Model the fold of this input.
Amino acid sequence: MSKLALLGGSKAIDRKLAPYTTLGIEEEQAVLEVVRKGNLSQFLGVWHEDFYGGPRIKKLESEWSAYFNTKHSVTVNSNTSGLYAALGAIGLEPGDEVIVPPWTMCATATAPLIWNAIPVFADIEPETFNIDPKSIEERITPRTKAIMVVNIFGHPAALDEIMAIAKRHNLVVIEDNAQAPDAFYKGKHTGTIADIGIFSLNYHKHIHTGEGGVCVTDNDHYAERMQLIRNHAEAVVGPKGVSDISNMIGFNFRMTEIEAAIGSEQLKKLHGFTTQRAKAAAILDDGLRNLGGLDIPVVKEGCTHVYYNYGLQYHAEQTGVPRAKIVEAMHAEGIEISGRYINLHLIPMFQQKIAYGKNGFPWSADFYKGNVSYEKGICPVAEHLNTETFLGFPIFSYAFPPADVEMVVEAFQKIWDNIDDLRQI
Ligand SMILES: *Cc1c(COP(=O)(O)O)cnc(C)c1O
Done:
């Protein structure tokens, strides 16, 4: 049995694992073509045919709609911008409440504040880390307008249950699908099940354009409003003859022709990448399944998982070794694991209710009739995962040819073989 690296032995992972890369000659050629043509963006921020962007933007949007089987795709310059556009499009009023999960990238929870609406945190499910329908239902008030669902780590949320709750209470659902492109829920692509879905094309996601995002919807009204918010709406609503001008404060969320050209090539590769990653995850599953006190990611019936992150749970009471010690041992072996994710309700902005200015706006404004709590304890499952049991393996960082995955599996097994030694120190 080889000695733990933490105790002076050699590292189980003694070479650099191949990093995940998505770019090839296809993207190179696509970029060259745009650069040679000379028009790096063709958007005009006035009412004109180029208000909707140039040829590559239109091409990517139609390809995206075809691939995901959705009526409209609206490209934007990030998933974050897409969240802002979507929440503006649905007609949020100041003081409306939007239910959000605490386990997500911060933009999901911050986006309602852009429209002076109030984020309300619902707890998550322990198995999938996704927002819990039961907790959503408990958080609904007369002020609730929308639910933000994140298919976190690449596994679909309980979308049927959530859509049914929304229907009963007349709420809009927005799917932040940044981490789950190409995942399926009961035969449908995630991102296309709610009223609006948003995809990220930032550098860390399954496919990317550097920065970028795409909003999808089957709703004509929402699509038009997102197109307006993307591109200086206030200057366009008059000439375009738009009557509902609420939230038509336009940003510049436009994607460039270069990014769109790259996006078209990346989209063709998406399914190959997610298939490859599922294979790596299957090897990890097989190798880690029998390690005591460690739960591998769950894939629920009717769901596929695209493994943006490989989320494990660790039960120290079963091994007698605290999580921090296991993480330390893993780092010593060369496994880049994280012993926490995030609990957004606990970040300073929510704890102090300070967003715009110093006086607690928008929570303190007259238009807000509620009194939302962000206290520690409101999301016990999410908090417990963070403080006690969660282990996140950033599978997205690696290309993971089988030899590399095997090496990671052996590193885990080495630690478990030496668990008695870890218990002693
Ligand atoms: C990455 C990510 C975002 C932000 O995406 P950007 O394109 O960087 O703005 C939002 N939500 C989730 C869940 C993400 O993972």
In short: The CA atoms of residues 297 and 312 lie 6 Å apart. The mean pLDDT is 97.
